[in-house]
Amino acid sequence: MDEGVYYRDGVIYLLYTDDSLLASKDETKLNQAIEDIQGSGLKITIEGELEEFLGVHIRRTTDGNYIMTQPN
After folding, report:
1. 11-27 in b/e burial notation, b at 16+ Cβ within 10 A?
2. pLDDT > 70: what percent of the chain?
3. pLDDT grade, residue 11 (50/70/90)?
4. Beta carbons of 43 and 54 less than 8 angstroms apart
């Protein structure tokens, strides 16, 4: 079994093959995690608000909740 979900200091890091996702309620901690990853020599692409990940469509509602669907 290969672990693919990591948690550190309020930041969740999800890794699947060559796709990954960072998430946190705390933007400061999220930015620090990004700096740590970049500082390790890994290249990281910041794509902004999440809309899709691994074929799952993700939509944020006006009340801050998320709706996830997998139409295919």
Report:
1. bebeeeeeebebebeee
2. 97
3. very high
4. no
